[in-house]
């Protein structure tokens, strides 16, 4: 489970930001929180939502988390001397040349970890890992820069038992020790890296919808248990879809009429080899309810489905995996092309202890203000992103000291918490008036 994510000097965020999923002492909506083992009396929320105006920086929070994930998994295999790809806050001369900082706290296999690093576009400056196997901190390693050198100074705690010298010698200045050690079969650190590999799933379904559509179609064809769960999810979300059918599509290439007869054996041989290499495509048709008789309906071609249905279908694969495995799902623009009631139902899946049995978490940003409902979300599950003088800031709803039954949606739209666009009607109406007068 994700506990907390800190970052500084990344894209539109200049100062340090803290995104925490630690629950407040509030006892309202107790089904929205989980009490992990070896985490004392503290609890974690099962979902968190981020609001902000367009271009406020709310997507940059997700991009910061994605950058951490990708750099951990790929820094060791990047070409030597290639740029790290990190983007600092560029509107200030000082921060543009300063390192970017990341730190993430998470729980994996009942052990809490605190891992972080600082870097610029050329090298890693600092890196550290603290583990809490029995609730007490153990510093496994620290990495700090040497003065006037690309080399690092190292500290290894007594609880870190792997081959320290070999691992640090294999760590390039532009790569992380964590990913280097895991690639070199460090059993201790491979477990830490596995959380990023197996437990953290970050998606932009708007950009990746076709990928997840294909993944889901093939899963339905290959996994009967998954297909059963998929059908239950679709029916529960009330899309008037009562069934579906899935099958492989084998496309045969027509042979031109004037194709030379002497080349036909070679053509068929190449075609057979190609069909073995390339996976056949998978088609899905949904059966839509028609009439009052139970199960009555009509199967429609995939291309006739609405974009919202296709988007939900693509989302269902990561949703089912995350809920089953107790993973963390991070979604950019969860509400795009989905009805607010449908988004509400998806959020409730993570609050239902009979469905979310393993402490899965959902983090997403949205413009859907209907979710600002204190019967759906606790006050510690709501965050706002505000931009001032070009710099974004992340603010928890709790910072505004809201009342238990505060009209959150009304207050937000009135600008009580910021994080909304400011539109000057005077500036907008003047050019429009001129345009209309020309016509």
Features:
single chain, 439 residues, alpha+beta, seven-stranded antiparallel beta sheet, six-stranded mixed beta sheet, 12 helices, 25% strand, globular
Description:
The model has no long low-confidence stretch (mean pLDDT 83). The protein has 439 residues and is of the alpha+beta class. Helices cover 32% and strands 25% of the residues. The strands form 4 sheets. Strands 2-1-6-7-8-9-10 form a 7-stranded antiparallel β-sheet. The chain is built from 12 helices and 18 strands. It has helices spanning 58-74, 93-96, 164-169, 177-183, 187-199, 205-222, 224-236, 264-277, 307-325, 340-349, 408-413, 425-438, and strands at 2-8, 17-20, 33-34, 44-45, 47-52, 100-108, 111-119, 124-132, 138-145, 152-156, 200-203, 241-249, 281-289, 297-300, 328-331, 361-365, 382-388, 391-396.
Question: Secondary structure elements and their pairing?
Answer:
Elements: E1 2-8, E2 17-20, E3 33-34, E4 44-45, E5 47-52, H1 58-74, H2 93-96, E6 100-108, E7 111-119, E8 124-132, E9 138-145, E10 152-156, H3 164-169, H4 177-183, H5 187-199, E11 200-203, H6 205-222, H7 224-236, E12 241-249, H8 264-277, E13 281-289, E14 297-300, H9 307-325, E15 328-331, H10 340-349, E16 361-365, E17 382-388, E18 391-396, H11 408-413, H12 425-438
Parallel strand pairs: 5-16, 5-17, 11-15, 15-16
Antiparallel strand pairs: 1-2, 1-6, 3-4, 6-7, 7-8, 8-9, 9-10, 12-13, 13-14, 17-18
């Amino acid at each position: 489970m994700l506990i907390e994510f800190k970052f500084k000097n990344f894209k539109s965020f200049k100062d340090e930001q803290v995104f925490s999923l630690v629950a407040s002492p509030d006892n309202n909506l107790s089904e929205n929180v989980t009490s992990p083992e070896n985490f004392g009396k503290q609890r974690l929320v099962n979902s968190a939502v981020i609001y902000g105006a367009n271009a406020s920086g709310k997507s940059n929070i997700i991009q910061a988390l994605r950058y951490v994930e990708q750099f951990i998994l790929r820094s060791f295999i990047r070409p030597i001397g290639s740029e790290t790809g990190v983007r600092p806050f560029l509107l200030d001369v000082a921060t543009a040349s300063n390192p970017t900082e990341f730190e993430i706290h998470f729980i994996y296999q009942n052990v809490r970890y605190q891992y972080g690093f600082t870097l610029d576009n050329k090298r890693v400056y600092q890196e550290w890992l603290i583990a809490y196997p029995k609730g007490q901190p153990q510093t496994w390693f620290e990495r700090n820069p040497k003065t006037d050198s690309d080399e690092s100074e190292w500290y290894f705690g007594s609880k870190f038992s792997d081959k320290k010298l070999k691992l640090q010698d294999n760590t390039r200045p532009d790569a992380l020790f964590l990913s280097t050690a895991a690639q070199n079969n460090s059993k201790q650190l491979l477990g830490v890296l596995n959380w990023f590999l197996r437990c953290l799933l970050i998606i932009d379904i708007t950009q990746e919808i076709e990928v997840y559509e294909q993944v889901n179609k093939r899963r339905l064809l290959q996994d009967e248990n998954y297909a059963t769960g998929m059908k239950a999810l679709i029916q529960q979300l009330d899309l008037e879809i009562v069934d579906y059918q899935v099958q492989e599509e084998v496309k045969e290439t027509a042979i031109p009429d004037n194709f030379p007869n002497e080349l036909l054996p070679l053509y068929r041989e190449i075609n057979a080899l190609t069909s073995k290499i390339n996976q056949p495509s998978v088609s899905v048709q949904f059966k839509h309810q028609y009439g009052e008789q139970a199960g009555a309906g009509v199967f429609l071609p995939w291309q006739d489905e609405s974009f919202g249905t296709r988007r939900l279908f693509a989302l269902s694969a990561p949703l089912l995996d995350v809920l089953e495995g107790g993973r963390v799902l991070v979604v950019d623009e969860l509400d795009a092309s989905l009805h607010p009631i449908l988004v509400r139902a998806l959020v409730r899946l993570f609050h239902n202890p009979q469905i979310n049995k393993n402490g899965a978490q959902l983090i997403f940003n949205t413009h859907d203000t209907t979710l600002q409902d204190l019967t759906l979300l606790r006050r510690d599950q709501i965050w706002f992103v505000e931009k001032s003088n070009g710099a974004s800031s992340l603010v928890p709803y709790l910072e505004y000291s809201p009342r238990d039954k505060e009209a959150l949606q009304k207050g937000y739209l009135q600008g009580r918490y910021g994080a909304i666009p400011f539109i000057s009607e005077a500036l907008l109406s003047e050019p429009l008036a001129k345009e209309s007068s020309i016509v």
